[in-house]
């Protein structure tokens, strides 16, 4: 994915005289759309949106938070949840993708400070917009207007951790001095879970007789500078599994459009580690929901609980 342009950034709600805690950190930027960012229908891919989240996220946080000081004290952040959705309108190659990102310092359990389940992190919201494209493969660079229209949205939750601390102290439960200029927001609903992502409406029924499993091993090319498999590799595997399930269920996989991917992350994988992707497909008319887990493999086979679990929503 192309690197994001330098965003403008500010801490909203902050008075520079009184230095009252700011509500959030807001950044905006523009990214030129490239050929691989759009599918054959000229719609922005969900995996493209996910590919942009990290540079946009770190630009905003690093401009307002002394990340180096936090890391020096053994505190880091990990992605524990993401949810990205795309729009249905066509876009155009070389058109500007306008991005707006808002980052809030948050208590993630919904209980507030001082509870046994308290844990701190960041709640990051993304809004994407771009001019309307012609929707014709022969005119894939043509923009029908210069006015940007909403084309996607996303959310990422980062959990603050002490990765090398004692197990009982891994989760950061107390405010950090580097974040004192930001107001602490308490989640209105608890952090999403495997169970909450698995919920479907009453009209959905199993579309494949038995769950499908695919095994593999992660390599160095799946990793990033954080020394573990890149977040987008997990969600790409989920999307690939959804396509395989749709093909097994009978509808044409060529016409299946993935419009949303949401995932919770429990434990990372490193290069050389084996994994099993397990998926099941539910369907209600032309709507599909693939529930996909990525499991680590132990001496006795795949572990029961997934290390990463996601929900892939689509339309046939």
Can you summarize the main beta sheet?
14 strands, mixed
Multimeric organization: single chain
Number of helices: 4
> What is the averaged pLDDT score?
90
Radius of gyration: 20 Å
**What's the number of extended β-strand segments?**
14
Which regions are unreliable across 5 or more consecutive residues at pLDDT < 50?
A: 1-9, 11-19
Class based on secondary structure composition and strand pairing: alpha+beta
Which range best describes the helical content: under 10%, 10-25%, 25-40%, 40-55%, 55-70% or over 70%? 10-25%
Shape: globular
Order of helices and strands: EEHHEEEEEHEEHEEEEE
Strand content: 35-45%
Separation, N- and C-terminal Cα atoms: 27 Å
Summarize the structure in words.
The chain is α+β, with helices and mostly antiparallel strands and 316 residues long. Helices cover 15% and strands 39% of the residues. The protein is built from four helices and 14 strands. Strands 1, 2, 3, 4, 5, 6, 7, 8, 9, 10, 11, 12, 13 and 14 form a 14-stranded mixed β-sheet that branches. A hairpin with a 2-residue loop joins β12 (287-298) and β13. The longest helix is centred in the N-terminal third of the chain and has 19 residues, at 46-64. 36% of the residues are buried. The model is unreliable at 1-9 and 11-19 (pLDDT under 50).
């Amino acid at each position: 994915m192309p690197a994001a342009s330098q965003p403008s950034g500010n801490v909203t709600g902050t008075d520079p005289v009184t230095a009252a805690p700011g509500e959030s950190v807001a950044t905006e930027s523009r990214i030129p759309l490239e050929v691989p960012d759009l599918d054959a229908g000229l719609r922005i891919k969900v995996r493209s949106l996910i590919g942009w989240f990290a540079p946009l996220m770190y630009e905003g946080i690093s401009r307002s938070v002394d990340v180096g000081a936090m890391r020096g004290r053994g505190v880091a952040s990990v992605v524990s949840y993401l949810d990205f959705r795309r729009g249905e309108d066509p876009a155009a190659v070389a058109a500007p993708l306008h991005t707006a990102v808002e980052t809030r310092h948050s208590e993630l359990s919904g209980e507030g400070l001082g509870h046994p389940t308290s844990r701190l992190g960041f709640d990051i919201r993304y809004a994407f917009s771009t001019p309307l494209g012609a929707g014709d493969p022969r005119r894939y660079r043509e923009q029908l207007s210069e006015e940007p229209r909403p084309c996607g949205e996303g959310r990422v939750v980062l959990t603050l951790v002490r990765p090398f601390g004692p197990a009982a102290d891994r989760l950061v439960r107390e405010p950090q001095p580097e974040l004192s200029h930001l107001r602490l927001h308490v989640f209105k609903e608890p952090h999403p879970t495997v169970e909450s992502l698995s919920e479907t409406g009453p009209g959905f029924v199993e579309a494949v007789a038995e769950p499908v499993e695919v095994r593999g091993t992660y390599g160095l090319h799946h990793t990033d500078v954080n020394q573990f498999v890149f977040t987008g590799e997990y969600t790409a595997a989920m999307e690939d599994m959804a396509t395989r399930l749709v093909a097994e269920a009978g509808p044409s996989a060529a016409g299946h459009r993935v419009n949303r991917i949401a995932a919770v992350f429990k434990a990372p994988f490193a290069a050389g580690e084996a994994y099993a992707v397990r998926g099941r497909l539910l369907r209600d008319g032309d709507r599909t929901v693939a529930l996909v887990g990525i499991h680590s493999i132990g001496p006795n086979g795949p572990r029961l609980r997934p290390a990463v679990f996601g929900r892939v929503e689509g339309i046939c």
